[in-house]
């Protein structure tokens, strides 16, 4: 134990299963847990949609809500949940000195304007001029801000007054891994005392599906758990809207203000396997080795996306190291891109906090866990690139 | 202590330190009429685009990669570290990526049906064009750079809007101070001056529309300044722990003494009227550098040439420096290169260090009509010989981003 251990004192999570840590604990420990799916809106693809959310509970001003599209609202909302949960929401001083790292992609484009341009382009040879013509007249200024990657963090500053610092990491799962890895490293090194870290993903937008489908990553047949999608039509990924924000503090900082922590973040490792040249499973196994995992069965909250090759590689690597008992949460929530690793860490912390495992989300592929987890592993192996994992332990 | 042992730069003024520096101290502008795309219907028809590279017309993602690659090659070359086995982490400041319109439209033209976005997704699935997928992924550019330079670990791509380049440097400094690495490659690159980017900034009334004399359009701190000029470029720095740099006999180009930041909670595009976040960022950087205000000898301004920024920058600096601010030389590179957005903080850090090394302060050009409300020594219109041993460089951005760097010529 060190005063600079990294502890989790607040968590704000949202997915199709509900909002908040309690709702997720209930939904994920139900017998049997079952996914919420929308198979119609984006058919032939299915998605895990957002639950109904009363935005004004975390974003009280209508004016603020209007300045954002759903992605930024979702992230700002989840950040508010985390601050509330950490007992920091009304603490102006600690919010003003709080650091922030957000993992982000891009926000929502204006689908209507894009469709107008797509359709008009079929009858025009001067497409560049068409773009100027339509974009200058149809685009809304606020929407540009709603699209900017760093404006999720910007909105969190405005709505929740978190202003110590504000950094946005971009780039799919890797951004979420780096956000947590860097935040934890800064606390351990004494470069920060408390940090808000997390990400959000809003899949209910055609562009968000397009980005996956440019390489055929989306799953298209009947719904199946992530471990069973190999051989099905499509690429294996079912996406979900969701968000996860964590308040990380130095142990000493949390103790001083009398806060009990959910769990501690142990070592976090990341990797960039050159997947076209190196076996991914070996790279994942090397990360597992680097963590020096505890003996015996280890609850493993896996962010496996369902993408065929990396999901298979993850299962294979986990099978060769110790006795991990895997829970692929994307089976129930869908893949949340930048939010994937923060979400995995949150679920791992929740299980350690309760001292209870999750039941198998896919009984055919996930073993039962006996006893009370003292630690849990969280993983995020990118559907296309970049890998990371971290050990969550008792606080 | 973190040293700089390699630097590279590309802007509309040219490729490489030497060409850029000569243009900069010659007071030459790189701003020109846009030829990359038609300017019909556009209010602003000028920019500081980089038009002389093979990928200048290949879209934002390809050009941003090439800019970053060129700047990093020059920086790593100067550092004398192995060109393809850098051996430290990569921090890349880059613009958010999107599938380019050209590709969107060509996919749609080839779609089986034309029912809007749904048909576009289907066309994408059938086309399986992996290069289009790569263009839509935020990790791609850094992944390719990591391959090319042999950087270690997971590269970080970041955005703090117009402060991104400075944040990339800050992340490198922090990683070295934590002892995680002996060196880091920090790059800011931006090749995203597309028609849509121009239109978006126009809609926010951020750009000047003084199209008639492009080289005169960027006029930081002038009374008649009317907005920034969108531009492209890249800056790259090899950061290294001083001990490790000295141990391998590397030439020390400058020292990254400190960095500081503070977020603004006032508004999405405007800063708090009292300037307190920018003031706090400047003070945090000085405090991190262990330096008093009176030790700053030159300020490399954010100086965008928007009415708002220059006013706020003056307010915050005069609050921190008091009366002395009137006699501290401060100039804006953006008067010549425009606003290189995600690259700006890194490009301007390179120029700041060159200012100290060369003993010459680049001017703020187009300073014909001073703004009486902004009393600063902006090094008007012509370069100035000066021994500069410390520099403060400011970077401020939309979304409440404020990041400042303090650099020095020599170790303490």
Key features?
heterodimer; A: 395 residues; alpha/beta; Peroxisomal Thiolase, Chain A, domain 1; 11-stranded mixed β-sheet; two-stranded parallel sheet; 15 helices; B: 412 residues; two-stranded antiparallel ribbon; 15 strands
Question: How would you characterize this protein structure?
Answer:
The complex is a heterodimer of chains A (395) and B (412). Chain A is α/β, with parallel strands linked by helices and 395 residues long. Chain A contains 15 helices and 13 strands. Chain A folds into two domains: 6-107 and 148-393, Thiolase/Chalcone synthase (Peroxisomal Thiolase, Chain A, domain 1); 111-142. Helix content of chain A is 37%, strand content 20%. In chain A, strands 1, 2, 4, 5, 6, 8, 9, 10, 11, 12 and 13 form an eleven-stranded mixed sheet that branches. The termini of chain A are close together. The mean pLDDT of chain A is 97. Chain B has 412 residues and is an alpha/beta fold. In chain B, helix 2 runs parallel beside helix 6 (140-149), helix 7 crosses helix 13 and helix 10 crosses helix 11 (307-321). Chain B has a single domain (2-97, 137-408), classed as Peroxisomal Thiolase, Chain A, domain 1. The radius of gyration of chain B is 21 Å and the shape is globular. The chains are: A alpha/beta (395), B alpha/beta (412). The interface between A and B is large, with 82 and 79 residues.
């Amino acid at each position: 134990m060190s005063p600079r251990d990294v502890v989790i004192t607040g968590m704000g999570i949202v997915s199709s299963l509900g909002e908040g840590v309690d709702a997720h604990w209930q939904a994920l420990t139900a017998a049997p847990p079952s996914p919420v799916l929308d198979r119609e809106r984006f058919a032939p693809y299915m998605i895990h949609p957002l639950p109904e959310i009363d935005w004004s509970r975390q974003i009280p001003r209508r004016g603020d809500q209007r300045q954002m599209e759903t992605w930024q609202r979702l992230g700002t909302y989840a950040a508010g949940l985390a601050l509330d949960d950490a007992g920091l929401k009304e603490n102006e001083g600690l919010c003003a000195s709080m650091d922030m790292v957000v993992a982000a992609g891009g926000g929502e484009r204006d689908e209507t304007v894009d469709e107008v341009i797509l359709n008009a382009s079929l009858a025009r040879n001067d497409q560049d001029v068409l773009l100027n013509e339509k974009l200058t007249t149809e685009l809304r200024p606020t929407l540009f801000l709603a699209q900017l990657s760093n404006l999720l963090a910007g909105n969190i500053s405005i709505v929740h007054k978190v202003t110590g610092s504000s950094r946005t990491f971009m780039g799919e799962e890797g951004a979420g891994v780096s956000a947590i890895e860097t935040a934890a490293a800064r606390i351990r090194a004494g470069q920060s005392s408390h940090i808000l870290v997390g990400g959000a993903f809003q899949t209910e937008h055609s562009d968000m599906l397009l980005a996956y489908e440019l390489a055929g990553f989306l799953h298209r047949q009947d719904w199946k758990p992530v471990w069973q999608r190999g051989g099905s039509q499509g690429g294996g990924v079912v996406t979900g809207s969701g968000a996860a924000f964590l308040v990380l503090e130095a142990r000493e900082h949390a103790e001083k203000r009398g806060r009990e922590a959910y769990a501690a973040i142990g070592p976090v490792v990341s990797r960039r396997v050159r997947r076209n040249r190196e076996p991914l499973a070996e790279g994942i196994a090397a990360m597992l080795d680097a963590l020096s995992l505890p003996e015996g069965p280890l609850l493993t909250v896996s962010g496996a996306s369902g993408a065929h090759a990396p999901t298979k590689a993850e299962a294979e690597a986990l099978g060769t190291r110790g006795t991990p008992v895997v829970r692929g949460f994307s089976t129930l929530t869908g893949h949340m891109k930048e939010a994937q690793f923060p979400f995995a860490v949150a679920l791992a912390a929740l299980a350690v906090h309760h001292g209870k495992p999750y039941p198998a989300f896919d009984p055919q592929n996930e073993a039962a866990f006996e006893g009370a987890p003292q630690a849990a592993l969280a993983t995020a192996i990118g559907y296309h690139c970049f890998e990371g994992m971290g050990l969550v332990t008792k606080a | 202590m973190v040293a700089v042992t390699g630097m590279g730069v590309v802007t509309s003024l040219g490729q490489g330190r030497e060409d850029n520096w000569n243009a900069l101290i010659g007071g030459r502008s790189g701003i020109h009429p846009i030829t990359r795309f038609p300017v019909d219907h556009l209010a602003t028809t000028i920019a500081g685009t980089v038009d002389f590279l093979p990928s200048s017309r290949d879209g934002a993602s390809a050009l941003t990669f090439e800019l970053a690659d060129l700047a990093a090659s020059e920086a790593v070359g100067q550092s004398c570290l192995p060109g393809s086995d850098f051996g430290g982490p990569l921090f890349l400041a880059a613009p958010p990526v999107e599938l380019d319109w050209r590709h969107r439209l060509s996919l749609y033209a080839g779609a089986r049906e034309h029912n809007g976005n749904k048909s576009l997704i289907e066309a994408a699935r059938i086309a399986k064009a992996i290069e289009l997928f790569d263009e839509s992924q935020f990790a791609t550019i850094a992944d390719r750079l990591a391959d090319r330079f042999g950087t270690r670990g997971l590269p970080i791509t970041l955005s703090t809007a117009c402060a991104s380049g400075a944040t990339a440097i800050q992340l490198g400094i922090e990683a070295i101070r934590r002892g995680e690495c002996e060196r880091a490659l920090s790059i800011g690159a931006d090749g995203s001056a597309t028609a849509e980017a121009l239109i978006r900034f126009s809609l926010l009334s951020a750009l000047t529309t003084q199209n008639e004399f492009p080289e005169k359009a960027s006029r930081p701190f002038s009374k008649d300044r009317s907005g920034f000029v969108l531009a492209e470029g890249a800056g790259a720095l090899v950061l290294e722990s001083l001990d490790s740099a000295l141990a391998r006999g590397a030439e020390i180009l400058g020292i990254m003494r400190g960095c500081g930041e503070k977020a603004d909670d006032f508004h999405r595009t405007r800063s708090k009227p009292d300037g307190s976040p920018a003031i706090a960022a400047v003070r945090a950087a000085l405090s991190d550098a262990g330096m008093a205000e009176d030790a700053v000898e030159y300020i490399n301004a954010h100086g965008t040439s928007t009415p708002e920024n220059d006013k706020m920058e003056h307010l915050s600096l005069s609050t921190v420096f008091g009366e002395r601010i009137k006699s501290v030389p401060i100039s804006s590179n953006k008067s010549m290169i425009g606003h290189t957005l995600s690259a700006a903080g890194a490009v301007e850090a390179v120029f700041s260090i060159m200012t100290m090394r060369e003993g010459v302060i680049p001017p703020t050009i187009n300073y014909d009509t001073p703004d009486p409300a902004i009393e600063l020594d902006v090094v008007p219109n012509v370069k100035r010989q000066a021994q500069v041993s410390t520099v403060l460089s400011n970077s401020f951005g939309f979304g409440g981003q404020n990041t400042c760097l303090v650099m020095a010529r020599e170790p303490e």
